[in-house]
Design brief:
Blueprint: H1 2-27, E1 37-43, H2 48-54, H3 77-85, E2 94-96, E3 99-102, E4 107-112, E5 118-119, E6 121-123, H4 153-156, E7 159-160, E8 165-168, E9 174-179, E10 187-192
The structure holds copper (II) ion.
C-alpha cells in the first residue's frame, strides 16, 4: 500500500514538473530577447477498447481515453490499420498546423493532445515509418530517419507521449520536414525565416 502511494506521489511530481516547465517557457514568449514559441499539436482518435486489447503487452494503457469513444468519435485499431494499408489513412491522426512559418530562434513546441504516443522526427523526405502495418501496402521499407524504431536512440528522442510536449530548438533557416515515425501520414513543414 505504501509503495503504491509513493509511486502515485512520484507520478504527480513528474506531471507537476512538466507543467512548471511549460509555464516557464510560456513566460519567455515575446519578452525581450527570449525566443518565441510556436505550438504544434499532435492529434489522434484512438479507440481505447480495441487499441488496449491488442496492445496489452505494452502495459494496457497504450491508448488514453481522450476520444469520446462512446459517442463514436474514435477509430478502432482495425479501421486505422485498414486505412493506412490502403493508402487512405485516418485524417484524425494529424499534426496541426500542416505548415508553420517561424522566425529563426523560435522554439517549436509539439504537444500530444491525442491518446497515443507519436514521434516528431525531422526527415529529408517524407516516407514510411518503422511499423510496417501502418505503411501503405504494409511495406517494410523505412526511411532512414525512422529506421530501427525506438531501439534507435535518435528516433526515441523524438517521441512525444500522451499529454507531454517536445521542444524543437535550433532550427536553421530554411525548410524543415517533420513526420511521425509510427503513423507516417502525420506530416508537417516548418519554414524558418
Ligand atoms: Cu503518430
Amino acid at each position: 500500500m505504501k509503495k503504491v502511494a509513493t509511486l502515485t506521489l512520484l507520478a504527480g511530481a513528474v506531471i507537476f514538473a512538466g507543467v512548471t516547465h511549460a509555464r516557464a517557457q510560456g513566460d519567455g514568449n515575446g519578452n525581450g530577447n527570449s525566443p518565441g514559441i510556436a505550438q504544434v499539436v499532435a492529434l489522434d482518435e484512438c479507440d481505447p477498447q480495441s487499441f488496449n486489447a491488442a496492445l496489452s503487452e505494452s502495459g494496457g494503457g497504450f491508448c488514453h481515453n481522450v476520444s469520446l469513444a462512446a459517442f463514436g468519435y474514435a477509430t478502432t485499431l482495425s479501421d486505422l490499420l485498414m486505412g493506412a494499408e490502403t493508402g487512405s489513412p485516418d485524417p484524425g491522426w494529424d499534426f496541426e498546423p500542416d505548415q508553420l512559418t517561424v522566425k529563426e530562434g523560435t522554439i517549436v513546441s509539439v504537444v500530444d493532445q491525442g491518446g497515443e504516443p507519436h514521434t516528431f522526427t525531422e526527415v529529408k523526405a517524407f516516407g514510411n515509418g518503422f511499423l510496417a502495418p501502418l505503411n501503405p501496402g504494409s511495406s517494410t521499407s523505412v526511411i532512414p530517419e525512422c529506421n530501427g524504431g525506438f531501439k534507435n536512440i535518435a528516433v526515441a528522442r523524438t517521441r512525444v507521449v500522451q499529454g507531454s510536449h517536445l521542444d524543437v530548438i535550433g532550427l536553421s533557416k530554411g525548410k524543415h520536414l517533420f513526420q511521425c515515425c509510427i503513423h507516417p501520414w502525420m506530416r508537417m513543414e516548418v519554414d524558418v525565416k
